[in-house]
Every structure is written in C-alpha cells, then in structure tokens.
Amino acid sequence: MALTLSAAPGPARLLRRAGAVLAARPSLLAAATVLLVCVPTGEKDVTAAVHITAADLASLALVAVTAVHLLRGRAPVLGPAACALFGGIVFAAAVATVGSIDPATSLTGFVRLTQVFVLVPVGMLCALRDRTDQRLVLGSFVAAALIQGAVGAHQYLTGTGASYTGRPIRAVGTFGALDIMAMSTVVGFGLLAALALALGERGPGGDRRLRRAMYAAAAFLVFPLAVSFSRGSWIATGAAAVVLLLRADARLAVRSAVLGLAAVVVLVGGLGLGASGVTDRLSSIGSVSAAPDQSVSDRYDLWTTATRIWQDHPVGGAGPKAFQQLRDSHAPLRLSSGSDAADATIGFQREPLLSPHNMYFLVLSEQGLIGIVAYTALFLGLLIGCLRHPGGPGGGPGLGALALLVWVLVDYLYSDIGGTTTVLTSVVLGLAARTARAGTARAGTARAGTPGAVAR
Questions:
Q1: DSSP secondary structure letter of residue 268
Q2: What are phi and psi of 170, to 5 degrees?
Q3: Is 253 exposed, middle or buried (CB count within 10 Å of its CB: 0-12, 13-18, 19+)?
Q4: Residue 117 resides in a domain
Q5: Which structural domain range is residue 364 located in?
Q6: Does one domain contain both 451 and 387?
Q7: Is the dihedral of CA 116, 410, 432, 41 positive or negative?
Q8: Burial of 235 per CB tally in 10 Å (0-12, 13-18, 19+)
Q9: pLDDT tens column, 14-56
Q10: Which secondary structure element, helix H or strand E, spans residue 341, and what is its range?
C-alpha cells in the first residue's frame, strides 16, 4: 500500500491561517497587546521621544485590522456621540500642534496622543463584539498581572528588586527601575479585572470554579501591589475597588472592606510581610500636606509649573511635548533636577522630571482650554456610559470596564502618560467605550419602552 506523507504547512499557509483567525476574532490582538506588555524591553529610557514596544506593535495591528473591517463594512459604524468625543481629542491635539512653540517636536506628541486616546480605543470599540471578547481581554489583564506579580513578589522576598530606602526590595516586575510604576499598574489592573470576573460569576448560572480562581488571583495580587510601594497605585486600586463593589452589591462592599482590613492586619501586623516599608509608605500618604517628602514637594512644584505654562498659552496650549522645554523657565527654584532610580542592572541614575505628573495639568499646559474640555468630555462620557451598564450577575465585563476606567481617572490625578504601560490605557478606554455604548443603548431603549436590547 502506498503511503502519502502530507507536508507540514508552510510559512505562507500559517500566515494565512493566522490572518483568518485574527479577522474572525480581532479581540485576540487586544489580548495580545495586554500580554505583550510583559515582554522585557531592557533598561531603555521609557521617556524617549520614540519608544516602541511589542505591545505598541500589537495595538497598531489591531488598528489596521479594524480599519480593514470598517472599509469592508464588517465592523460597526461609530455613532455620532463616539465620533464627537474621539474627534474632539484629535481636534484639540491638532490645534495645539499647529500653534506649538516647536511644531516639529509636537508632531510626534500629536501622533502618540492620537494613538493612545483615539486610534486604539476606537479599534477596541469595533473589535469587541460580545461578552466573550470582553472577558478575553479582562482575562489577559489577569494573566499579565499574575506574571508581573510573581516576579515582583520574588524580587521583594529575595532582595533583588529596585532600591527603596536604600534596600533592593521594591517590586518592579520585568520593567526595571527606570519604569518604576509599571508593575504596580499592571497588577492593579489585573486585581480589578479578577475581582470583576469573579463578581460576574455570582448567582445560580455562574461558574463556581472560575469565581474561586478569580478571587484567589485577586487575593494573591494584593501582596505584590503592596510591596511595589506605589502610593498612587494603592489609592487608585482602592478607589476603583470601592466603586466596583458598590456597583455590584453594597452589602458585599461592606463585607469585603471588613475582610480586607482583617487580611492587612494579619499579613502586615501579624506575619510582618512588607511591614517595614508598607506602614511607612501608608503614613506618608496622610502627611503629605503637613510634612511632604521631596517627591511630593516636587510634584506640587511641577503642578505649579504647568499652571504657569497654561497662563502663557491659555486657549490652545504650548503644544504636545512642550512642557519639558518650558519647565525650567516656569518652575520654582526649589524644584529638584530629577528623581533617583537604582537597581542591580542600571546601578544609580538620576532621572529628569519631564512632565507634571498629573494628566489633567499636562493637558491644560500643552493643549489649553480646548484640550481640557475635550478630555473632560471624553472621560465623563465614558464614565457615565459605564455607570449606566447594569452590574451584578453576568455583568463582569461591564463591572471590569468601570473599575479600570475609575483606576485610570484617579491615577491621572498624580501621573500622566508615559512608559511601557501607556498602551494599557488605550485598552481600558476601549473597554469602557464598548461598555458605555451598550449602557447608553440600554438606557435609550428603556426610555422607549423596549427592554433588553443590546447595542450592536
């Protein structure tokens, strides 16, 4: 009997198959964007003008696939509200770039702002077609957080992390000391996503195993988040978790607060895990107004600097990426030259303070009143739309989008875009836009007397 051997698929055939899969389920590119954030980029300067990561490339691939689907009529057309909100961001950035003190430099900022706040979120909005897609993206947040959390916990326990109070105990994951906030951002997102997915599995039709697994993941992620020693991430995660629990079940929120407090007492007070750093860091949150440390004083001075720049360019701003050029001419004399960064790989470095560390002040100084109005409209539109989305059983994706959006909006009070995890902001905005569209449609159909309709 003659035997026929089938040849293995060639590269061209594999590429075609991969393209067909991505065309059928573009949300895979959104999940890949989140997971690829974990790919180490080495000790590169994350504040450089051009800093493209694997996650950025995946997000641009998502935009390209979405554009093809829109041209072929396979993706939902954006409604007038979405066009107005996202178009306002482009308009504000364009006006600021044209009137910039340095248009050539601002052009790169215009491209980055368009990618982060318009192109990728719109790509996400069109790619996420159902709850399965949304759960896939939330699951990728959990997976990325577990990876970074495991690395960060190991760094703290073995003393191989970034320097904190002179000791190499700060958990930074695979990002390194030059991107000190990245791990806590990923872990905070993953903790909230896990909690939302667990809450979505409550009720008789829920998956008990998935619910328990997500609760366990959220509980584990508390420790690496704590030993990141990031006050900003603690505040943002706590605020978002409160909103998430209240939206899902107010009584559950009270029980969770009691259990969480008990866990902190046992872990920190009883077992002493992270006690030396966590308690000092927590106490510093309450004393920033009375006796702020140098990092807090610098942040206040940077906010003052941004306000002074805006006063000179009130309408259209000084232009994207203009803050770093105007900082020295508008900053108080006491502002430090930079912040310290150190770990076993880079040694000790002094990193310059090139942004106001507040997204709202950054927009105000670089894009003026036009910019702050556009961003406020976008953020409020997404937040209101997410709040209209029903929580409770089966509402895990909607709850997750709401919690992640709240995290971003709170974190923007003391941070801004920049670093490896910036692209995750785009994913969060896309999830929120998808949830807001469904929530707005439900509200509209309820007013019209047609319950249960879902936006398509």
A1: I
A2: -80, 125
A3: middle
A4: yes
A5: 53-127+289-391+421-456
A6: yes
A7: positive
A8: middle
A9: 666 666 666 667 889 999 999 999 988 765 555 454 568 899 9
A10: strand 338-343
